[in-house]
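Q: I'm writing up a methods section and want to include an example of the input and output format. Could you take the sequence below and give the corresponding predicted structure tokens, formatted cleanly so I can copy it straight into the document?
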Amino acid sequence: MTSGMQLVVFPAKDLDAAKRLFSTLLGSEPYVDQAYYVGYRVGELEFGLDPNAQSAGPICYWEVPDIEASVASLVAAGAELGQAPHDVGGGKRISTLIEKSGSTIGLAQSP
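A: Here is the clean output for your methods example:
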């Protein structure tokens, strides 16, 4: 179903402060720097900062080939839809689901 976790998104109420911190931590500048999202790549993993995140903590996104089918399968397995699949730019689509204990599961489909 997945090709592994490839994206971790951190909520960032103060995007400029978070960008300074993560640029220092990762030793690099972001490859995407927009008002709605700042993204870094470290090896195979992407780290993102989201000023509009609704989660209190980071969300791990699992890369899937078909986000609609994956959402349907996880809802059928007992997850609750948190955020329906939607495009976040460049054809990348994301969705979140909430599992029974309250943890948020992220799915991502690359173009």
